[in-house]
Amino acid sequence: MTTLVLVSHPHLADSTSQQFLKASLPADETIIWEHIEGQSTLDVAKEQDQLRRADRIILQFPLYWYAAPAGLKAWEDTVLTRTFVYGDHRYPLAGKELGIVVTTGMPGKAFQRGGAEQITLDAAMAPLAALADRAKMTWLPIFAIHQFGYLEEPEKLQLVVDYQRYLTQQQPDSLGERQDWFTKRLPAMIHQLPPEQQATGRLIEAEFAQQKDDIDALVDTLSLIKEQEDD
Known about the structure:
The structure is a single chain. With 231 residues, this protein is an alpha/beta fold. The protein has nine helices and six strands. Helix 8 (175-191) runs antiparallel to helix 9. The radius of gyration is 20 Å and the shape is globular. The relative contact order is 0.12.
């Protein structure tokens, strides 16, 4: 799977959250990363070709007054022309996945009904969801990062895993897909650990494999019980 990450931020070098996310990109996956404002001019043909080749497209940005930065809007107006998206009835983006990674300076509870912001992130991102619908794309659940500067080290480590899953794990985000994702990536994660921690990593891998087998056996048992009840 090829994932295209389009980052919109007017001051990327000064953003600790965006630098953290860039450093968190998995090295063993086909991921194209691009900073929209970092280009002096937009090569429309190149941008549209990247979109055609990607399986999953991620728009990543900080929330500015309940919307994306102006750079992303300019990119949309220039690259996502009517003819390209749907005008010729070919729909080159049809079937592709569109995901949103958005950072906010407010806590998550502020974006709930009755919260301090009086708007949900789903409502704020509705124009992008409408774009996905128009282009016949699959809209992924929003990946929100609230108040990155306040995250403790364990929370940042969890963020790395969750972010990598969002970029590379098959959807929908089911238990089975999560298990498969971790099974494929645990060996590489353990290899990257310091030598003195790798033995612990292998124990975790063995425990994970055992629990996966137990869950698979339980699912098989439940399926058998259901079949007997249906009979």
